Structure formats: C-alpha cells, structure tokens
Amino acid sequence: ALESGEVDLVANALPPSQVERLRSADGIEVAEVPGLGYAHLVSNMVEPRLALVDVRRARAAAVGAADSALGAERAAVRREVDLLREGLRAHASRTGSALQAAVLVAVPDALVESAGLAGRAAGPWSSLADVLAGAVMRAAAEGALQGGALTDLREALASPPVGRTDELAALLDRARALGVPPPQYGAALEGYWTSRAADEAGIDLLAWDVTAGADANRGTIEAVYRYYADLYLEDPDLEWAGMAALIGPSFAAGFFDLAQFRGVAERLQDLPLPPGVRLPPGVEDLAQLGEDELAFYETTLLSMQKEIFGDMAPGHQAYREGGAAALEEMAAAGVLPGTTAQAWRDIASGDRDRVAAGNGALLLREQYEVIDDDYDRMRAHAPSGEAFTWALTLVGAPSIPGASGYPDVFPLEVAVETPGPERLGPWDNPAQGTAHVTTPFPDGNVADFDDRWALIEEDTLPAYRSLLDDDPGTVRALLEQDVGERVEQMRTLPHRLDDIAAQLADWDVRFEQ
C-alpha cells in the first residue's frame, strides 16, 4: 500500500527485525515504536491528504476480497457435495428396489387375502416389495372400502370386550396379522388370557359380582381355588398356584363367617386381662357390628379374591397353553411388569432354585401389589377397621399343614411387676418380681404389610416348602379334595367358637424374681 501510494499510514504488529528494516527504508519515517515491534509508519508523500486515510479501510478491502474468494470456493465445494449426495441416494434407491424384488419372505394369510383388493397377485411366499405394497393396500382397503375398520380395530384394542374369548382371539389375530406393535394390543391380550382362565375354571366373568355377597358367589369362590389346584396338579413348578389352592379355603371360610366375629368379640369381653394387657380400641363394639359394616368387609374380601385371579390367572393360563413364548408376548405388550416377567422366566427355567425364587416373587406381588391396598382400606374403615383386622389376625389360621396362625408365631408379650417390697427384713420377698406374660393375642396386624409378610416369611412359606420337599403326596391329596368340603372344615362355626375361647384362655406366665 505504501509503495503504490494509496496510503501513507500503516498500523501493524511487526517483529523488531522488520521495524529495524523500515527505519532505513527510503522515504519512510518511523513515527513511533511503543511496545514490542509496534510501528506507526508515515510515508513522506507529495499529497498530504493521503495521510488522513485510515489504514483499516485498506485492510477491510483486502479481507473482503479474500472472503469473497473463500465464499466462492465454499459454494463450489457445496455443489460438489450435493451432486455426490444425490448420486448416493439414487444408488441406494436402485439397490433397495433390487433387493425387495429379489428377496422372498413369508406372507401372512391376511396379506395374501388382501392382495386381491388391488388386483395384485400374492402367495404364501412373495417378494419383499409385494409384501410392503400388500400391507399398505390392506390398510387402505380396510380404512376406505370397509367404512373405517382400522379405526374400529384401534378402538376395540383400546377397550376390548370382557369374557368373550372368541371375539378377543379374532381381535388379536387381526392385530398380529397387521403388524400392530404388542403394546397397542396389551389390553386385549390380557383380557384374552383372563377369559381363557375363566373358561377353564368354569367362571362367568360377566356374572362375577362381589357386591352380591359370599352366598351368591359360592360357586365362583370354589371354582377359583379348584382352578389353582388343577394348575399345580398339572405342573408342580407352579408353586404359587399350589399354595393359593391350599390356603384358599381358610381365606374363603372368612367370607362366610364374618357374622361369627360378633361371637368372638363377646368372648373377648369376658376375658379377665392382667395389668398391662389391653385390647385394641373398638374390640368390644364388634359384638354389635352392624350389617352394613359386615357387608363392607365381606365385599372387600371378595374383591381381593377377584383381584388376585385377575392378576395371576392370565400369566398362568398363558404359560399353561403357550409356554414361555406366550409369556414373552405378554411382557412385550406390557401386561407383565419387568419383575413379574423375570419371575416367569425363572419358573420356566426348570431350575429348582429359580423356580422357587420365581414363585416367591409372584407371592410378593400378590401380597404387596395386588391386595395391600384392600387391607389398608379395611383397617382404615371407621369405626371398626382397626378392631376388625386385629380380630382377623387373632382367629385366622392358614390351611397348610404345619403352618401356624399369627398369635402362635408372634404373640403379644408383656412384663408385669408384682407389688410389694423386694426384701422382707433380711430376706428376699418371694412374692415380688417380674411376671413375663405370653398372651394368646397377636403382636401385630395382618392388615399391615410388614406384619403380614413377616408371618409368611417366618412360618407360612417355610411350612409350605417343607411340605413340597418332604411330603408332596400330602399336597396332592389335599388339592384333589373337594374345595367346598375344605372350606367347611375351616369355617368358624358355633362349635369352633368354643375352641377359640379355649385358645384365648391359653396364657403362659414366667415369673422372674
């Protein structure tokens, strides 16, 4: 710029060596050099007005020219990339079309049938291109030619019919043929296996009304436990079903005997209680428990049985008919949560430890996920909930040989100090000390999950597993019995109230001086 005469002032960062060279350049004056190698250079030009020109204008012009050149280069590169991309896209399209025409795949019956809607030929084995076209044709045909059938399918899958097994089967077949993702037909899949289980059990799902009471539902109550028993008798790896069938009659007996709780309450009122032992509030009121209160507890207990069947029966029936593959479809559809799906994989493994663990996981799900809220609702029911569930804990006894009731495993224990001085003169007072009293009452409440699960882990489940390992013949013999007869054996009939009264009189006292 200086040599051309366009400017006479340059501001730039220069190394010291160049500054020294400029000092001796002809016609150039080094005006100042502040700092390392920073030079203000002034040219002694003839035209002084050029000295006013800002060197930054020249630099901007140079940068602009360079940027224009760079932009042109970028545009050229971009055009080359676009041409290359279009070429690759065209090549991929030609390759994909060739592969679709060359590869033969199995064609679902539904697509073979639908091919005629558009005048195309299709067979059990067709090219991939024809299969894809057939799927589109079928969707269009069902949506346009059949008055919105796909919309109907979507609605039916979201809200499937209850208890109509054939309709559910047809609905699932259609969804699978159209390639509907499993999560979208999960409700129909669960409904189908529930309906199949009910069919096998002889239960009419549409007529199962828990509000009708225990007597009206007696056939269904017994059918549920008969179904569980048959599952175990067919496949002993289904240990949860065997345990449910064994313990079920004692649970069912409670459905029919709720009115007997009045008699239990009357006998509790007559008990002389030592100091430090108190019954839960409201126990005395159980003797006058009203019909509405009894109906609430009866309906709740019946709904618990129905909820357990609805949660457990679909998986058992799917495994019974379709094996592990049917369970994996349920898992893919979201019907079986992750832990439950793994429990079924363990059961299907055939490994004894895994089978036991899988059945244990189902038991935990039943108690915690399925019916725990029902227990909570009963206990919180005012004014009798706390007293009622405590009495249920007191008299409940599992119908599994070797298993004990809650008061036998976790009895309420109290320590009572006897009155009087510790010493009578120089001698100890033999009448003074601590009486350790073991009561016939439960130190807990089965309506509380932790208390209930403690009983299962400590006593009920070990007794059942011991029976499976040491005496499987007894298990089979019990499960082959008539369910109704076993229910009657477990009922708290009037003569059993005397047994309960004797149990309530069984106190153990240990004196410690």
TrEMBL record:
What is the top-level taxon of the source organism?
Bacteria
**Protein name per Swiss-Prot or TrEMBL:** Uncharacterized protein
Q: Which organism is it from?
A: Pseudokineococcus marinus
